[in-house]
Every structure is written in structure tokens, then in C-alpha cells.
Fold each of these.
Amino acid sequence: MTKIKDIDCHKIVNSRGDWTIQTRVVLEDGSVGIQTIPDGASKGKKEAVYVTPEKSVELVTHVIKEAITGIDAFDQGKIDRTLVEIDGTENKKHLGANSILSVSLASSKAAAQSKNIPLYKYLAELYKNTEKLVIPTPVFNILNGGKHASNDLSFQEFMVIPAKKLPFDEQYEMGVNIYHTLEKNLEKAGQDVGVGDEGGFAPNGLNPKTALEFIKDSASEKYKVGTDVFLGMDVAADSFKDVMNYFIEEEGLHLSTDGLVDYYRELLKHNPIIYLEDPFYEEDFDGWKKIYKEFASNLMVVADDLTVTNPLILEELLPMKLHNAVIVKPNQVGSLTETFEFIRIAKENNMMITVSHRSGDTAEDTFIADLAVAVGADFFKSGAPARGERVAKYNRLMEIFLDLKEIT
Ligand code: 2PG
Ligand code: MG
């Protein structure tokens, strides 16, 4: 047992130039855990609520500090229960998911340091993962649109996904090579190679079909597309939802739910897409059901805004059969224990797990890399293989990859 002795918190700036918080938890044996908090741009409506960074600093350094000091740092369940209880709301709006999560995660880091073991090993212990630890497959978002860029592309993320059979170092290299080939090809075509929030290129004048063509052509210069590397998209459909329909502005298309299903059918027919995230907005159950029914046997239908890492919401939606994969973002729910619960339920229901960053993130924080390994996630999403806050997480996976290689 090592008690929490002190907690402090201050403001720092994230990758989008917005203020966020950094919290430090100190244990009585001198161990320290520091956690910064990311933020999304395309959020699910049911995500736990943030308070302003100023209010968060105030709450962490007073209310939370008072309630948490003295608790055993190894008792993560108690830490998180206490935080949730003193918040006392359904969506954490009193203390803020940002405040709560920063203390929850920083405590686990301090506990790992106190045990003198890497964070991923400590988290695997907490999650009671007895399987062999493996590195999840990276999902590289190399072309940005939607709310993550100021270009005219409606879909948010276009991704390349190396084959699962490849080791992480080769997968990483593949992502980097394809990223640079795409850069070269965009330049050759007279396109802008400025990047969006997640480091992917954000040219104007493309639409989902031509974006996929560019990526396919770039990937196939060096790799077998459909064998060694596959394609994925986070459509983030909520961001181009119009009153009655979906508006793909760059093509002047107003599509009904059925129209959007047809649109996906065409894309899937011509491209080796294995991953489709948030294809419909979160209340369009009809669309989700249709895409699941027709494609789920060969396609990961990935819920992000739909399930918001919330175990209660996930359980509620299960009988409807809307998706076969989920995104995990600890900040959507606001504590480590609830994140574990969510992953457990998803796995029990045979869903693929993708642990993910947020579009506003920090280079200081690589927690999700350790988390992904600890829980045996299938995939890992941290944007392009470029920009400090994106590669910090992939580079951390590389460290763990080498670490695990040494052990075996
Ligand atoms: C998403 C995320 C991360 P944001 O939609 O999956 O890529 O975006 O953090 O803006 O919600
Ligand atoms: Mg998403």
C-alpha cells in the first residue's frame, strides 16, 4: 500500500493551441504520475462533459485533492469510485471528465512507478489480462477532412491499415513510406500538402472517391493493396449531417440514409476497405443497422460517437446489432475503471477494439499506447505518422514492441 500524498494541476496548451490541464499525483513513497488531457473536435453528444481548464485546476487542487489524498494508489477502483461519487452526476459535469480523468490516470502512472514496472504491465495487471501482450495494429490517418481540416472534404479521416500479420516495426515503416509517397503524389498533382489536425494531408478539390484513389495509388507503389495494406475511413457522419439528410458538399450530394448506404456500397466495391467508423450519425440507427446487416461479415463497422466509451450505452445498444467494433477513448467516459469496463463488455461481445487519441492532443501524453497493449486492443489510432503529438504514441508503441521482444 502506498497512499496518495499530494495532487497539483496547472494549465498547458494542446496541439490545437487550446488550453487543457496537466495533473500531477505524488505518492507517499515519492512516486509521481503526470497526466495531460486531450480534447476532441467531433464529439459524440453523450460524451462526459469537460469543465473549463481554469475551473478544472481549481477543482483538482481543492475538492478532488481533499477527497483523494490518503487513498491507496494501488486501489484504482476506490480512486475512481470516489471521484465518480463526489462528482455525483451522470455525465461528470460537476467536476468535469477532464479533471476526473487526469487524476484517475495520473494515479495509475504513479502506482506503476511505485511498483517499478512499465505502465503497460501495471495496466495489464489492473485489467487482469493474462494473455500474452501484443502490439495493436496501427491505423494511420494520412488524409484529413471534416472538422479536422479547413478543406472541402466531408469525410474526416482516410486511413491505411497494415496487415495484422506484420510485426509493428514493419507496419510503422509502411505507414511512414505511404505517407511520404502520398505527399509526393499530391504535390505532383499540384495539390496542397498542408496538414490537418491529425497530421494527414488536407488538400482541397478532392472527394471521398478521389481521396481513396490517391491513397491506393500511393500505397501500391511499394505494397500490395488488399494483401499487405488495407484502407479505412472515419466518416464522422455527424459532421456533415443536414436537417433531413447527409450533405456531401464537394459533390453537391444530398443523401438520405439509404442513399448513403448506396454511396458506401460503391466505395466498398472498388476499394479494399476493412474499417468504417461512424458511417452514420449517432441517432440514425436505421443506417447503422443496414450497414451492419449487409457488410459486417467482411467489414469492421466501428462505433465511436455512438458508444462514447460508456459501458452503459454500449450495453443498451447491444441488442440492436449496430456495429462489430468500438473506439476506446478514456476521455469520453472520464475514468480508467469505466474504460476497462467498456472494453470488457465489448470483448465479451466479440467486438474489435481500437484505442484512440483525440484530435486535440499533447506530445507529453502516451497513456493510450500503454493502455492499448495492456488490454489487448486489436487496433490503435493516433493520426498520421507525423507531428509530435501523433508520433509520440506510435513511438511509445515501438518502445513497448522492443521491450516485449526482449522478454520473449
Ligand atoms: C475521432 C477522433 C479522433 P475527435 O472522431 O475518432 O480521430 O476525432 O478527437 O475530434 O473526436
Ligand atoms: Mg471517430
Amino acid sequence: MVAHRGPGAGRMIYLDYQATTPVAPEVAAAMQPWIADKFANPHSPSTWGREAAAAIEVARDQVERAIGLEGGSVAFTGSATEALNWALKGTLERADKRRNRIITVATEHAAVLDTCEWLAGQGIDLTVLPVGPDGLLDLADLERELDERVAVVAVMLVNNEIGVIQPIGEIAALAHSCGALMLCDAVQGLGRVDIPVGPDLVAVSAHKIHGPKGIGALWIRGGAEPAPFIHGGGQERGLRSGTLSPALCVGFGAAAKLVSERRAIDHEHVERLWITAGSSLMTDWVINGSTTQRYHGNLNIYWPGVDAARLIADLRDIAFSLGSACASGSGRPSHVLRALGLSDRDARSCIRLGFGRYTTEAEIIDAVNRIDSAARQQRDIAA
Ligand code: PLP
């Protein structure tokens, strides 16, 4: 694997796997002919067009296999953000008019929360459930809220900021008990944890599994098709118009095939890195979110009193992120950390280390030791 280089930088230790993942060499190789030579429109009936369409169908099958659910199929989208917007807006549009309610959770990605807020502005009744200090939804809270007015329950599988895993199977069963659909944002879970049986709609994204940016997908259970969100040429069974990019689809397919094939190897590797990172950290760091129900490639931690933004500025050759990153750059702590009950002060001490397939043990030891001593220095100066 080539070294990951930052813009104009020397060798960088990349620990921001939740933001995006390095493109796998196998993915780049699979995409290459579709970028360089094979330019046909996959929706045209020429021999070349049919070849491109066939490659897209192979990719669709690879993504569906990685998702691993029966009774549905995938429609490609431009991103998971688009898939989530489509799932929510299109489901509400299709739903019986008496079902005008959405239930979601305070720690969802902005692609869900902001879309729900937008729908609330259009008159949809929105309920945002809290989580416990461990970041997990209390199923009794959901059960209490459910009624026959709920059209969709939207909950993510693996949280992008803190890595906790919600009980999606149980949530889907509860949603179905009142006739609602269940939408699962599985962007951070795909290829890493099993997607439980139950959801009717599942959003995924290629660039979180070592695929290209600019392509996502919505897995749709047969019969749960949302109303189209993008209108035009009728591609994707009339559900999502727009000429598909064979290169992006093939790249997504190759990435999905790899996560399926490498599932056990990638899992073991991440477990080793998790143990290594944990044992290199001094005891002063606190883990955010459940320590049992979580994906181990996400280490979101804080040391009270440490200025996380300064840590990042001091360690420019290590790419990691503020646990308190917020989309708007307003400097306010993240909605996820607030939902856990962290004070703004503690939230400003949070960092997120994300690692995976191409992270080496040497990198994690080096990065964690340097982050730890930079934090210690800050504390010593403050004392
Ligand atoms: N949902 C989660 C949990 C994410 O982590 C992300 C990406 O940050 C998204 C949705 C949006 O994915 P995309 O970048 O494909 O729009």
C-alpha cells in the first residue's frame, strides 16, 4: 500500500477512517478502464453501452451481497446523503396521509437529522429520541412513542462519531409492530458489522469502504420503494433518474466484494489495533459511548481539560479529528457528544481516532504515544 500523503505533506499517519477511507488499490485498478477507455453510456443499446450496463449489474450484485439482506435490491445514488434524503422524503410522500410522523434519534448523522427537520418544516410530526450516556437508544422509549401515525423510524447502525452499535433488528421489529417502515443508515457499518435482518431501507456509501467518493446506494425491500426524488430519464427502475457512472459503480462493486471477502481479516486487524491503541494510552483518557456495543475501529476519547483543537494543530502529520467536529464549523460541540450528556468543556477535549485495513500497528503506537504526550504537556503547562 502506498503511503497516504496529505496535501503537500510528507508521510502522514491517517487516523480518520470515519471521515473517509483510502481507496483500495484493487478498486482503483477495477475503475481504471472505465475512466480511461470505456466511455459508453450504460443506458444506450449499443454493444458498448450493454457492456457498461452489464458491469453495473455485476457491481449491484456485489453491493447487495455485502449488505447481505434478502428480499430487496439496491438503487445507486450520488451519495449516502442523497439515499437518506430520498428514503425519508420519498417514504413520507408515499405513505398513507394519516401516517405523517417520523421517529429518529438525537445521535443520527446530519443527513438524517437535517432532512427530518426540513420535513418538520413541511408539517411532518418529528420525534427525536434521546440516548443514554452510553450512546444507546432505550427501546422502551421507542416503544412508548410508537403509534399508527408513524411512517418511518430512522436509526443508524454504527455511529460515525462514537462508534456505538444500535440494536437495529429490535428497532425494526418495533417499527413494524405499528406498521411503520424502518430506515437504517448503515454507512459506517457496511463490511464491518452484520446488518441485522429487519430494515426496509438501508443507506450505504462507497467511500467508507475503500471505494470512490460520489456514489452511494439505497437498498430497498421489495414493496417499500420510496417515491422518486430525482426525476428524468427513468434510470434505476424509474426510481432514481440520471446516467449512472460505470467507473463509480464498478469501484463501489469492487470495494464491496473486497469487504465481503476480507471481512474476517479486516475484523482481526481492527481488533489488534484497538487493543494496541488502548494499551498505549495512559489511564487519564475516557472513552465516549458504550464500551461493549461498539465498532472497534472508532476510538472516541477525551482527557478532561485538554484542548483537542490544539492537539490537532500540534500534530499536523497525524490525521485525526475532533470528536466535537460540527458540520458548520461554528465551533459548537457536536450534537452527538451533547446527546451523551458531555459538558461543552469536556466535548472540546474529545478526539476521534479512526483506523482500519491499511493502518499498521507501528503507526497506531507512534500516533497514540505522540497524542498522549502532547496532551500530557498541555496538562503540565496548565498545572
Ligand atoms: N451517514 C453516516 C453515518 C456517515 O458517516 C456519512 C458520512 O460522513 C453519511 C451518512 C453521508 O455519506 P456520504 O458522504 O456518502 O454522503
Amino acid sequence: MSLNFADRLNNVETSAIRELFKLLGKPGIISFAGGFPDSAMFDVDGIRIAANAALTKEPGAALQYGATEGYGPLREQIASFMQKKGTQDLAPDQLIVTTGSQQALDLLGKTMISPGDKVIVEGPTFLATIQCFRLYGAELISAPVDGEGVKTDELERLIEEHRPKFVYLIPTFGNPSGALLSEERRRAVLAMAVKHQTLIVEDDPYGDLYFGEAPPPSLLALSAQVPGSRDLLVHCGSLSKVLSPGLRVGWMVGPPELLAKATMCKQFSDAHTSTFAQATAAQYLIDGRMPGTLAKVRKVYAERAAAMGDALRRELGDAIEFVQPQGGLFIWARLTGFNGMLSDGAEFARRAIENNVAFVPGAPFYANNPDFSTLRLSFATVGIDKIEEGIARLGASL
Ligand code: PMP
């Protein structure tokens, strides 16, 4: 018997990247394909201490059902974490805890998208967002990105033309673009939210992973300076990339009526994010270990990003171009096709796998009009020696 699945599944295909990942089990492969942090960075001792404290101090709260909006002490700690990063006026009840920021994106889809609604995303953008919004029937429109993030003049033109339900941006070290939206463009985005009364979603799992200077303030922080913009802004945050994705702790800040609907939908979805994970995360933040952890991961990823950038320039030269990222986990590059050299990212990925090195071709990250010459390389999970060896193998795969 063939199962009669819901029509909404017709809008979504399994990702090409998933197919590629099946090949990664090959022995000896050096992989720049992953999208996750390095497990060796996890502060295991700190998390163990926090988990013990959570069980000792509040076993009832840590192991019982909890409020859908999130565990009170964690909401307080997240608000204080965000206040220190520039959103001084954020109160704990202005955010809800989500099961990773991925759930915040799903709740946005559930609460905001009716079939046929238009949503503007960056081209390229986070693949799971494309899949998730399409599942709810969104028609996605891509706004182009350059080294400074989304091109705001183009974005405004698209907003005027399509009147989208909302605009989804990853302004800080985007996945996959690695791009950092300049402060001027951030202000322009907030101004156009107000001018066109358009909801803006800021997805920000990477903002803390900067290598040198701190990035410009988040859209959420800047919204305090642009009257009317806070009411049109949703901000998604996460502990995944800085502490541990396995904890599945994320959060969403947004207009109260949107948070109320999202909370209602979350009730049907998972009732609440794991109380044990929330109590552990709250205790970890209370223990004051986050600044030390952030300093460590920033340093390691900065060294790896620099090593990968140098190796790419050395081994691939004119064959590729990229903007050296100032934070995050990724280098986003384009094959130039210079002197008749290879210009197809998927073909390059196939040849690379034969040479025991993997990365992700860039085309699937576009909701429409893919640039087939692009690729995403993660420098996060591989030590410097292996980065050099892997990039040399890439050079030999051209
Ligand atoms: N948004 C972006 C841009 C991401 O890259 C990711 C993780 N790859 C997520 C959201 C989801 O992360 P999590 O659910 O672990 O918070």
C-alpha cells in the first residue's frame, strides 16, 4: 500500500546535501562539509557541573514538565546575556525558549505562513529554513548578498514588488555566506521595516563567534534606536554554536502577540523544551563560564579560518574567490572559471570526494536562481594540519 501523505510534503525535496553526506563515511576523508561546531570545544566539565547543580538544587523543576514559554531562570539568564550584547531593554518575558533556533523557525512558519504567502530570504540562505518555510507553502524570493550581507537597495525593491509576509535574514556571519551585514545596512533594514510595515526575522546563531572586533549590534539591539522597528522584528538566538547543539536550547524574541501564537503552537509540538537541558543551561550561565568558553572558541575558529583562507589562496589561487570571514564557521567561495578552469561546484565536489576531501556545493542554498559556481567550506571541525592537507587535496581536484 502506498501511504497518502499530506499535500504540504509536495513542496519539499530531501536535500542534495543529505545525499552527499552519505559519502562522508569514507575512511581517510577530510571533511569541510559539516555545519556544526567542533565537539572538542565543548566545555564538558562546565556542563557536568551545571547539570549536577541543576539536579541538586532544583530536581523537581529540572525533571518535571515545565512552562511552554521556558524555564524562568533560563529566560532571565538569556535576557541578561542579550542585555550584555547591547539589547539593554530586553525583559525575560519578551522571549520564549525554543528547542534550538530551528524550532523558532518552524514556529514562525506555523504562525505566519499560509500556502502561497511570499517570504524574502537571502540568496544564499540556510537550507533548513528554505525547506521549513516551503513545508508551510511559502513562495520564497531571494534577495542578493555581497561581502557586506544582503544588498539593501535590492531588498527594498523586492519588498515593494512582492509585499512579503516577512523577510528572513542572517545578518551576522550567515550560513552559508559567512557575510557580515554592515551597520549602515542594518539601519537601512530597520528603516524599511517601518516604512513598509514589513516583519523582519533576524536569525543570529553565529553573532558571538567573531574573530577580531565585535560585529555591529544586532538588528534587535539597534531597533531601540529606530522608533517602531521593535514591533516588526523577530530575533532567533541559540546556544548551539557557542556551547552545545545537543542541549537544543534556542530562543525567540518578538512582538507579544506573535510570541503568544508561537507558544500555543509549541504546546502542540513539544509542550516545552527539555526542562533538564534548560535548567543545565541556566546554571551554566549563572556559573559565569560563558565568557571563558566564548574566548576559547573564538580563538580556535579564528586560527582555523585564517589557516583555511591562506591555504585556499596558496593552493587554488585564481581558481576561486572569496571574502575572508570575520566570524562564524564558514568560508563561502566561488569558482571563477579563470583560464578555462572548473566552474561547477557540484562537479568539483565529486572530484574532491575522489581525492578524499569534502565540502558542500553552494547551489542548494539558493531558494531560486542558484549560482552553480559556489561552495561552502567549514573550517570549524578540522585542525590546522588537516585543513592544510585538505585544501592541498582540493587544489589537486581542480
Ligand atoms: N539558523 C542557522 C542560520 C543555522 O545555521 C542553524 C544551525 N545550523 C540554525 C538556525 C539551527 O540551529 P539550532 O536549532 O541548533 O539552534
Amino acid sequence: MIEILTPAEVDRARESGALVADILQTMRSRATVGTNLLEINDWTREMIAEAGATSCYVDYEPSFGRGPFGHYICTAVNDAVLHGKPRDYALADGDLLTLDLAVSLRGIAADAAISFIVGESRPEESESMIEATERALAAGIEAARPGVRIGDLSHAIGSVLADAGYQVNTEFGGHGIGSTMHQDPHVPNVGRPGRGYVLRPGLLLALEPWVMADTDRLRMDADGWTLRSATGSRTAHSEHTIAITEDGAEILTLPR
Ligand code: MG
């Protein structure tokens, strides 16, 4: 089912999106050398509770994970890219950290992800990979407006990633969002223009380009959740939730 939100629901989505952005920026500022991933999980749990919101992750039990996730944020380090389950690990200088967070506030969910380098090191290849996912995300958002199709967004995202030299995995991509975190339509990170569902005002989409440096293949950790690059190469992921408006798209998960 594809959900079209009322203007009042989109207003609530703005609040959910602002909370997701606020938590992610707070965690980014606290994710320094020595910070443990389990601390990031605890701080996230506290901020969600303080806001009166609900975690979309803690009880999440999809077909692609083993049992309930049991945590409040995804923390993926270096070669880990998706569904990174927080573990007892202290961040080191130069680590590439991806944080992915979805919460529901007053019944509407928002979802966003950021990748960044921890500490003072600035590994050039990692920075350019992060920047490629950010540019792909911006291109997808730029393409989004009423009347265009999902394939137009997918094509815009995938073209940036391909031009930057990355192979694109098509197992996981963006998605509709609203009363639940993951819903139709699926938004692959590769696509053909003019194909797929036609966007309309009130549709919420989570767009999420992600790449691995030298492969499009994933492998899963023994935790049954964390997905890493098959080669051990570094990875990056950028995500925003957007609302389709009358004449374009509004990013709901920008920091205020
Ligand atoms: Mg998502």
C-alpha cells in the first residue's frame, strides 16, 4: 500500500524529521575517539524517550534480520554499511561511522542516515565516498516533484554513484515512509527514467544512496544484522526523509 499523508500528517512528519535530525547531529558531536557504540545507543534511547517518541528499530523484526533488532540506532563502522547493530567497540581516529535512525512521533515515522569520519584524520578516499552518497542524495531530492516517477529518482541517484565509479547494490534502497518506517514504494538506487509509481503531494519517501568502495556484494555478521562489504572495503550511506509538495520536495530530516 502506498500512503498519501494529509497536510496535518505532513506537519507531524516535520516534527518527527526534526527529532531524527537533532538526535543524529547530537550523536555526531559525541562520536569522538574512544566513544563506545553502546554509549551512542544509550544516548539515542534517552533522547527518543525524552521527546516522547517511539523507536522504529527496537522491536523491528524483518525478514532480512535475525529476531528483534533490540537497539535504537544503527552504528556501522568502516566496512559495515547497513543495519549495523551497536556492539562493544570504542571508536578510533579515522573510523568511518554511519549512523542510521528512524523514530515515530505522534504516529508518523522519519528516517535518516549520516556518514562521517571520527577524530582528526581525513582519509581522502573515505571522504570522497561519503561526498558521492551526499551528492547522489541531493540529486534524488532535486528530481523529486509531483508527476515524476520513482524511476526518475532512482536514475538521478544511480547516475551520480556510477559516475563516481561505484557499483550499486540493488538489494537495499529507499522506501516509502509514513505511519510505518518501511512501506511501498521501493526506491532502488538504480533505475530507468519514466518507470514506476508517479509521485504526488503528500507522499513521504526515504531516499538512501549507499556504496562500498570496490564491490556491490554484502556479507552478514554473526549478529544476524550487520551488513558489510564482501571485500572488507569501506562504505558510506546518506539518507533523508522527504515530503513531496505541490511543486517539489521538502527535506524533513535537516538539522534545525
Ligand atoms: Mg531507510
